Amino acid sequence: MKLCRFTLATSPDTRIGLIADNQNVIDLTESGVLRMQELFERPDVANELLRLSRAGLAQYPLTGIRLRTPVEAQEVWAAGVTYLRSKEARMVESEFSATAYDRVYDAVRPEIFFKSLPEKVVSPGDPVGIRKDARWNVPEPELALVINASGKLVGFTIGNDMSSRDIEGENMLYLPQAKIYTGSCAVGPWVVVGPNEDDARQWSIHLEIGREGKTVFTGETRVDKIKRRFDELVEYLFRSQKFPNGAVLLTGAGIVPPDSFTLQANDTVRINISGIGTLDNPVAVV
Ligand code: DO4
Ligand code: MG
């Protein structure tokens, strides 16, 4: 089942929806569900969603609503160098930091870094950013884990960990500047509840970048190429840290465009994960 946040053309208020049949959104707000988080904290979320889907609530066509990011109050964090492709690309990008990337890929402790405050997360259809002081910018299409306040994996969504490779490559101490700036993190289009890690490991991730009506890059990878288990990543994130609102954890990038490629203003970034759906965003210079 897919849970979303959305607005109607008639009101700016964000509503909670359940997409039951890929065409219509059942408005859960009418039944008193004001935050997805309330549902994520319930032990019986799947049963509750089934009950709500049969409660005769108002429905709207998916084409008539505006999806908002499913990130409500969660901090967004990201794991890095979880795919071999990510390690290799970063070692080429920076002689200076190559040893660190090489080591962290095999180390016991994963790389996990802070990515975004919830209020800064970009919604589907809104622009993701490329920094005006960066020359080499890429999207990072990543499976995102939705985790409740108790550290339980409750769903999956799509994240874009926008990154400035020249800034990251110059010195790894610049990583926060390469990764955290206006528009650097998009999450959506909804949260898929029900599948477990083994299900998600069957999914593929596809990236398509468009420019002036043409496709300028496509790439594909499989979730199963992620080296670390999801419970290992979640355990490290929640180690010595509380998340009263839960957390969203991006699981790393396995698709890296060629080194000659950089994003430009007005490009379009389309990330599809089979089993979830598609996250589309245009690109703007910030
Ligand atoms: O340390 C660099 C960032 C790694 C990352 O974001 C990824 O592998 O996806
Ligand atoms: Mg990343």
Write the layout of secondary structure elements.
Blueprint: E1 2-8, E2 11-19, E3 24-27, H1 36-40, H2 45-53, E4 59-61, E5 66-68, E6 75-80, H3 84-93, H4 98-106, E7 111-116, E8 128-130, E9 137-138, E10 141-147, E11 153-161, E12 163-164, H5 165-170, H6 175-179, E13 185-192, H7 197-200, E14 204-211, E15 214-222, H8 230-238, E16 247-250, E17 268-273, E18 277-285
Parallel strand pairs: 6-16, 8-18
Antiparallel strand pairs: 1-2, 1-5, 1-13, 2-3, 3-4, 6-7, 9-12, 10-11, 10-16, 11-13, 14-15, 14-17, 17-18
Helix pairs in contact: 3-4
This protein binds 2,5-dioxopentanoic acid and magnesium ion.
The site of magnesium ion has 7 residues, from β6.
Brief digest:
With 286 residues, the protein is of the alpha+beta class. It has eight helices and 18 strands. Helix content is 20%, strand content 37%.
What does the model show?
- The chain is 20% helix and 37% strand.
- It is of the alpha+beta class.
- Strands 1, 2, 3, 4, 5, 6, 7, 10, 11, 13 and 16 form an 11-stranded mixed beta sheet that branches. The protein has a 5-stranded mixed beta sheet with strand order 8-18-17-14-15, with no helix packed on it.
- Strand 10 and strand 11 (153-161) form a beta hairpin.
- The longest helix is centred in the first third of the chain and has 10 residues, at 84-93.
- It binds 2,5-dioxopentanoic acid and magnesium ion (MG).
- The site of 2,5-dioxopentanoic acid (DO4) has 11 residues, from strand 6 and helix 3.
- Residues 78, 80-81, 86, 90, 111, 140, 161, 175, 252-253 line the site of 2,5-dioxopentanoic acid.
